[in-house]
Amino acid sequence: MTNKTEIESLIYLLEDPDPEVQNGVKNRFQELGERAVPLLDQYKSESVKDSERQHINEIIHNITYGSLLEDFTGLIDSGITGRRSLEEALFILARFGNPTLRSAEYKDKLDDLARQIGSDIAYTPSLNEKMRILLHFVFRELRFRGDSNNYHDPENAFLDRVIDRRKGLPIMLSVVVMSIARRLNLPFYGANMPIHFMLVYQTHNQNILVDPFDGGTIVTYDQCYYFLKKNGIEPRAEHLERANESEILARCIRNLMHSYAKNHQEQKVADLKELLALVETKR
Q1: Range(s) of the domain holding residue 111
Q2: Tally of domains in the chain
């Protein structure tokens, strides 16, 4: 049985310059497995050294990645067929950044957000007005916003962190809206536009495009075409159509790969490639 003293000793030995000592420590952590994670997490929260926290993060990732992969594979095999399964997949993916994540707590948070405006939505007959109520709630009252200062920070690409920090990438802000909308039976979906992910509000007679990075602003198709042209991309109709959930999940993983590649975290990029391959083989 492991204890805090052993964990502290093992972490101390990670600073040893002898590769054999380091390998022995890593092997011991693998033997301890997920039993060591709560103590490692506690030690990390108490540590004041960046290098030590980084070592602990790597150890926790190596210990927990196997169970994450198993859960992710099981869900992919079942099929990503709607907003509910997309949300479930993204909470599993969030364990990549926070291995001790309790996804039920975040699902409860989304349930609570939906309850806060449930009556307003229910008693509004106009579909367009329901759309405006939800967008105002998320982007004005809750103040979800894009993070333009640290755009490529991995924190902007994990659903739990976006919910907590109320800022993130366009695609993750979109997922927050889609997740609340699903609970309220509102037709918000994603549009997999290159460079800049968009929301689409899909009614029986129109599709309304919404920019999640610009405070939930409604935009025109012409504006999107101009944006793509300006960025050297030839616009195609499918760029602004509703995306399927597997495409959205794949894009979320690629965003994380890009973030970790910028930080030269090659092992995490390699692990994410493995997750991406699982998604792409099922599309």
Answers
A1: 80-281
A2: 2
